[in-house]
Design brief:
By secondary structure, the protein is of the alpha/beta class. 27% of the residues lie in helices and 25% in strands. Strands 3, 5, 6, 9, 10, 17 and 18 form a seven-stranded mixed β-sheet that branches. Strands 13-12-11-14-15-16 form a six-stranded parallel β-sheet, with helices on both faces. The structure holds nicotinamide-adenine-dinucleotide and zinc ion. The site of zinc ion has 9 residues, from helix 3.
Length: 344
């Protein structure tokens, strides 16, 4: 089969020919139909420090956001059949650690990630544990299904605290922030304000339902937000930029007693933060990681199945695996949102 892999250190990727993997006990073989590029794949493409510390073996077939058809069942697999079209939960939990035993598989102590710690889905076929396959209804367009994985990150961030009637600031409208805009609206948020330094992406956030958009490099975030909220500030911040300065300036416009969902990953672990004002303003911070298995998938499926969220505005490019270089470079240039590989 054909696959996109990292075969050696340094920037870039390689198209390889390799054997179709065999599903072991409890696993299934998926014929991949669509896969989408995640920001973390871009780290692997660039081969930065993060990628070097996370990818535990080379060569490695990369890619995780994906969907396809079940074509072979390993020994003992129940609840799935050949021909099922499934989305893939890319985090593989051990099932026996403390967190797994108490229903928190998304924070499993022994978590393995597809495309990092075992061969991934930018390939014609991928093997996954059967429990990581999520059946989706026919009503959801097949090429949207890979995006249900990052959409789950947005769902868990939006639902970390009470969003109903809340004025919300979404900081960073990459694919996940743009989806968070639509999800917050669907779950009954009040005014949703989206902030990004990339106008192309802000326009997409508008199409996803943002009531207001702000480019903080052009307008003062504080002035605009205070104006929109009549001096109150926002009730909720959804931090999806991974930019420490963006977090700091967002915290200056949150109202007392508000909450912050932190999803963006910062370039370094320790960042400056106005912690005394977080304390004195009684702000709640939630760190968000992954997606709840599998209650988040139920919500994501429902949002798409009932058409409360439309993903078309964020799908800006559809590409073949062979055109990977152009696909990655377009993302790096900030000229794409979600790029989908059409594989099968
Ligand atoms: P992305 O990098 O495509 O989007 C980030 C956006 O933030 C970009 O559009 C960028 O222009 C914008 N931005 C940068 N500086 C800004 C500023 N000063 N003000 C406003 N916007 C600014 O990322 P994504 O794929 O949408 O993911 C969002 C974040 O979530 C990333 O940091 C990613 O690493 C992180 N992430 C976390 C998890 C988790 O489990 N915690 C999972 C997936 C992604
Ligand atoms: Zn575990």
């Amino acid at each position: 089969m054909k696959a996109l892999a990292k075969t050696k250190g340094g920037p870039g990727l390689q198209i390889i020919e390799t054997d179709i993997p065999k599903p072991g006990p409890g696993e299934v073989l998926i014929k991949v139909k669509y896969a989408s590029i995640c920001g973390s794949d871009v780290h692997i493409y660039k081969w930065d420090e993060f990628a070097q510390s996370e990818v535990d073996h080379l060569p490695r077939i990369i890619g995780h956001e994906s969907a396809g058809e079940v074509v072979e069942l390993g020994e003992g697999v129940e609840g799935l059949k050949v021909g099922d079209y499934v989305g893939i939960e890319t985090h593989i939990a051990c099932g026996h650690c403390y967190q797994c035993r108490i229903g928190k598989k998304h924070v499993c102590k022994n978590l393995k990630i597809l495309g990092f710690h075992r061969d991934g889905a930018f390939a014609e076929y991928v093997v996954i544990p059967a429990e990581n396959a999520w059946k989706v209804p026919e009503s959801i367009p097949k090429h949207w299904v890979p995006i249900m994985e990052p959409m789950g990150n947005a769902v868990d961030t939006v639902l970390a605290g009470d969003i109903t009637g809340a004025d919300v600031l979404v900081v960073g409208t990459g694919p996940i922030g743009a989806m968070a805009v639509a999800i917050a609206k669907a779950y009954g948020a009040g005014r949703v304000i989206a902030s990004d330094i990339n106008d192309f992406r802000l326009n997409i956030a508008k199409k996803m339902g943002a009531d207001y958009t702000i480019n903080p490099e052009i307008d003062s975030l504080k002035t605009v937000v205070m104006d929109i909220t009549n001096g109150k500030g926002v009730d909720v911040i959804l931090e999806m930029s991974g930019n420490p300065q963006a977090l700091e300036s967002a915290l200056s416009v949150i109202t007392n007693g508000g909450w912050v969902g932190l999803l963006g990953i910062y370039g370094k672990n320790i960042i400056d933060m106005p912690l005394n004002s977080v304390i004195m303003k009684n702000i709640t911070l939630y760190g968000i990681t992954g997606r709840r298995m599998f209650s988040t998938w139920v919500k994501t499926t429902s949002l798409l199945d009932t058409k409360r969220v439309d993903l078309s505005p964020i799908i800006t490019h559809i590409s073949s695996l062979e055109e990977y270089k152009q696909a990655f470079d377009t993302i790096i240039q900030g000229a794409a949102m979600k790029v989908i590989f059409e594989i099968g």
